[in-house]
């Protein structure tokens, strides 16, 4: 694992997605819990943030900005992947003023500087990034975000990773088996961003910890909240119960799984595929817990974190 900050080009798996892959990604990954969005909006407003414009960075197929846009006059979604942006445009969405969400291709480091028209400096009230900041070059992101935000504006970043929900039969044993297989077979295909996500952004560079600190942000305003599967604050839409087939497909969207499959093309779609072997272990442990064949389901939770920081007034 590299200890350097990820660069804009370090993540290539999602960047190379087609529109079809982007749409499939949106279908397989459930949206975030409404309470998460409510907390972001309430905290942003209570700390002096306005509701004129929201900019969602690394927006993927547009899931989060599609929800949050309804509270802002203008909304923009940016992603470095042409395929993801195509999927987002197909999904659409409107702001509180019924204006269509603008979706464009841009890196988190440029934040729309190169677009026509560009994202203007001092024009954005809230910058968000869901399950994406761990792929950013944070030194460049924070510097650009400070220019794009209005005084008193907010940056909200959140992410994490899936975990077995404790309500699931034999959840602890299943999670332990998955952790073991992940450590042995998938960790070699982790990139720096994957480790940042799994560590709940504890090592994600902040405006005051980057190589050239960005003084425009107020360190005293820093807000951090962690989410644990099974608590009242689940980050996803509650306990997400899915079929084994859906779980297998969703696990396959992880970037490190895709890199494993690129390294083992002959195993893809066979019983030797790493996710298929995880599924078989899951079935075994569910049967041990008394779940009958044909009645197996997976109940997923989400270990996550929300970070928020304000630009000085």
Automatic annotation (TrEMBL):
| InterPro entries with a match to the protein in the record | Diverse_substrate_MTase (IPR051052), Methyltransf_11 (IPR013216), SAM-dependent_MTases_sf (IPR029063)
* Entry annotated with the keyword Manganese: no
Outline the extent of the Methyltransferase type domain.
55-156
Top-rank lineage group of the source organism: Eukaryota
Name under which the protein is recorded:
Methyltransferase
Q: Which UniProt keywords apply?
A: Methyltransferase, Transferase
Pfam assignment, any one: Methyltransf_11
**Species per Swiss-Prot/TrEMBL record:** Stachybotrys elegans
Q: Which GO terms describe its biological process?
A: methylation
Q: Where is this region: Disordered?
A: 1-20
Supply one GO molecular-function term: S-adenosylmethionine-dependent methyltransferase activity
């Amino acid at each position: 694992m590299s200890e350097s900050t990820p660069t804009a080009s370090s993540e290539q798996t999602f960047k190379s997605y087609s529109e079809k892959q982007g749409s499939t990604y949106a279908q397989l990954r459930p949206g975030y819990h409404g309470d998460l969005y409510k907390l972001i909006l309430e905290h942003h407003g209570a700390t002096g943030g306005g509701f004129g414009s929201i900019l969602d960075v690394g927006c993927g197929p547009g899931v989060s900005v599609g929800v949050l846009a309804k509270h802002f006059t203008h909304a923009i979604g940016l992603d470095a992947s042409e395929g993801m942006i195509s999927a987002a445009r197909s999904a659409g969405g409107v702001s509180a003023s019924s204006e269509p969400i603008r979706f464009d291709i841009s890196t988190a480091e440029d934040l729309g500087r190169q677009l026509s028209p560009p994202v203007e400096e001092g024009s954005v009230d809230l910058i968000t990034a869901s399950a994406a900041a761990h792929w950013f070059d944070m030194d460049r992101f924070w510097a650009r975000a400070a220019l794009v935000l209005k005084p008193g504006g907010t940056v909200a970043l959140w992410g994490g990773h899936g975990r077995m929900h404790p309500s699931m039969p034999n959840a602890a044993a299943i999670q332990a088996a998955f952790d073991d297989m992940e450590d042995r077979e998938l960790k070699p295909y982790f990139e720096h961003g994957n480790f940042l996500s799994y560590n709940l952004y504890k090592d994600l560079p902040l405006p005051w910890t980057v190589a050239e600190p960005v003084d425009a942000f107020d360190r005293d305003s820093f807000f951090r909240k962690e989410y644990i599967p099974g608590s009242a604050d689940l980050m996803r839409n509650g306990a997400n119960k899915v079929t084994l087939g859906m779980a297998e497909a969703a696990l396959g969207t992880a970037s490190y799984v895709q890199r494993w499959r690129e390294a083992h093309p002959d195993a893809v779609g066979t019983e030797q595929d790493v996710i298929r072997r995880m599924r078989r272990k899951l079935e075994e442990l569910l049967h041990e817990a008394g779940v009958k064949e044909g009645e197996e389901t997976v109940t997923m939770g989400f270990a996550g974190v929300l970070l928020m920081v304000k630009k000085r007034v």
